[in-house]
Specification:
The chain is mainly α. The chain is 66% helix and 10% strand. The protein has a two-stranded parallel sheet with strand order 1-2. The chain has a two-stranded parallel ribbon with strand order 3-4. It binds adenosine monophosphate.
């Protein structure tokens, strides 16, 4: 939700690994078929697969006005690989927007989204629980990785879409004015 609003405002290139994987599934590619069974269970797709996708996207969209990574990096290994890729491209992460939302609220958002998204991984209670467990185990450490370089800003992710959007914009504007 917030990614769509941010790319509309700032003109960043949106790189959502989940969206790329869902389009591979829709196109019935070998990668998509391999990823589908993991995604249906709420498990992560192997690091090398998503890193390869991001590496290709960085080459494809060279010269754009910044990237918004969404759902990536989801493990410390992915974050380390991204650092190397960005280094190679003589760029780096500007800011990591860390949205804080209680688990019950996340579950209720997934259940609501399932009504329109058609995503089987939103609808099933066991899969929802699995996704949240994997998030705590594998993805939360990514915040620590970026805290080392002081890139993380924590944002209260509960409230109206517009209020949260304003908080995110303030942080991005702050970061952009610092880097000028
Ligand atoms: P999302 O659309 O970001 O919620 O991702 C949906 C599913 O795609 C996840 O539950 C994973 O199975 C897979 N996926 C998306 N991004 C990644 C990633 N960065 N690393 C591993 N698996 C991913």
């Amino acid at each position: 939700t917030q990614s769509e609003k941010l790319i509309a405002k700032y003109g960043f290139r949106h790189l959502s690994t989940g969206d790329i994987l869902r389009s591979e599934i829709a196109n019935k590619t070998a990668l998509g078929m391999e990823a589908k069974s993991l995604m249906d269970k709420g498990q992560l797709v192997p690091d090398e697969v998503v890193i390869g996708m991001i590496s290709t996207a960085l080459d494809t969209y060279k010269g754009v006005n910044g990237f918004l990574f969404d759902g990536f990096p989801r493990t410390t290994a992915q974050a380390e690989a991204l650092d190397k890729l960005l280094d190679f491209n003589k760029t780096s992460i500007g800011v990591v927007l860390f949205l804080q939302v209680p688990q019950e609220e996340l579950i209720s958002r997934m259940v609501n989204r399932a009504k329109t998204s058609g995503r089987s991984d939103d609808a099933d209670e066991n899969v929802q629980r699995n996704r949240l467990e994997i998030y705590s185990r594998d993805t939360l450490p990514v915040a620590s990785h970026y805290r080392k370089s002081d890139k993380v800003v924590e944002i209260e992710g509960v409230g109206s879409v517009d209020d949260i959007f304003q908080l995110l914009c303030t942080e991005i504007d702050n970061k952009m004015s610092q880097s000028i």
